[in-house]
Design goal:
single chain; about 325 residues; disordered C terminus
């Protein structure tokens, strides 16, 4: 069965076959070559390499001769892969394969018109979220702008494309009553991680990657220098620890007195040999999905709708009352202990 837009097929002998275009016969028929592999991911990676290599060896191709899928493969392999995190590369590849290649893959760059782009993005309105549409357009614009800078595209055809207007819903935050309920039950259940999220701006991936070497109790601060990301590829996913979301995400978070006390108690409970602040099985980090599931169960028990683990970060960032009262939580902590 072919993967949509990729020209990759699962053969009867169990192998995967990927085909790529290398030229055209005098009668107009296209010439293809194939690559083979036992795994779909290997074939897709080899296809990208072969397409990019073919693109580089062509003798000054005219813009009208360069297919969008070839330029996109070149862009991923040489303009993106050496300079970004693996999660970013996987995200770009997914948008190209799932959205851009099916629409523009077989079209020569020179044949693309602004009207083609406008019709496509207007058609997406209502079928995808505004955020996804914006991400697709941003990536397409970057690919075309790169081709234009390299002389492979004659016009800046993306300039006059308009995206559907976005009506952003209000960001979900916990009100004071909900916050009090979450704190109380988290204390009772020993879910220290939710208290930490509520009184800092730590993200879920940063929380799961937080190690004791990142905790400075004397200086009353957390040092954020790692993050967990889930990487999806070839129908499966894995979790990898890398750098935080962006350069500005490398930061220090000040800790109120009561959180320092809770961290000392957490250290005593998990043991001096523990590596991660929120440990999982076998002393490894706790999985992000586990934390999400725990918080979902907590909100269901409390009857709180529309909240997820990231809501705690939103609450910290957007609710001034949290900044006013967090220093007084040390008294609350002492009473509940």
């Amino acid at each position: 069965m072919a993967r949509r837009g990729e020209n990759i097929y699962h053969r009867k002998d169990g192998r995967w076959e990927g085909r790529y275009w290398i030229g055209t016969l005098p009668d107009g028929r296209r010439i293809y070559k194939s690559v083979y592999g036992r795994r779909y991911a290997d074939v897709r990676r080899e296809l990208a390499i072969q397409r990019a290599s073919l693109y580089l060896t062509q003798e000054k191709p005219r813009s009208s001769d360069v297919l969008f899928e070839e330029r996109a493969a070149y862009f991923l392999e040489f303009k993106v892969k050496p300079f970004v995190k693996e999660t970013t590369l996987v995200g770009y590849r997914r948008l190209i394969v799932q959205h851009l290649i099916p629409e523009f893959g077989g079209m020569p760059l020179g044949a693309l018109e602004p009207e083609d782009l406008q019709r496509y993005f207007s058609r997406l309105n209502g079928t995808l979220s505004h955020g996804t549409i914006g991400n697709i357009f941003s990536l397409l614009r970057t690919i075309l702008r790169d081709a234009y800078a390299d002389g492979k595209l004659a016009r800046q055809i993306w300039q006059n494309v308009r995206l559907p207007r976005e009506s952003k819903p209000p960001v979900r935050v916990l009100n004071r009553e909900e916050q009090t309920k979450v704190e109380k039950l988290a204390f009772e259940q020993g879910r220290f991680e939710f208290i930490l999220c509520l009184y800092t701006d730590i993200r879920l991936g940063e929380l799961c990657a937080l190690q004791w070497e990142d905790v400075d109790l004397e200086g009353r601060r957390l040092i954020i220098r790692h993050g967990m990301q889930r990487i999806s590829s070839g129908g499966s996913s894995r979790v990898a620890m890398g750098t935080p979301k962006s350069a500005s995400s490398r930061r220090e978070i000040p800790l109120p007195t009561f959180l320092c006390a809770m961290l000392r108690e957490q250290r005593r409970q998990v043991g001096e040999d523990a590596r991660f602040v929120i440990p999982g099985k076998d002393g490894k980090n706790c999985d992000m999905r586990t934390i999400q599931s725990r918080f979902q169960r907590l909100t269901v028990e409390l009857g709180i709708d529309g909240a997820h683990i990231h809501t705690l970060r939103h609450t910290y960032l957007q609710c001034p009352h949290l900044h006013c009262i967090r220093q007084h939580r040390s008294d609350l902590h002492r009473v509940r202990r």
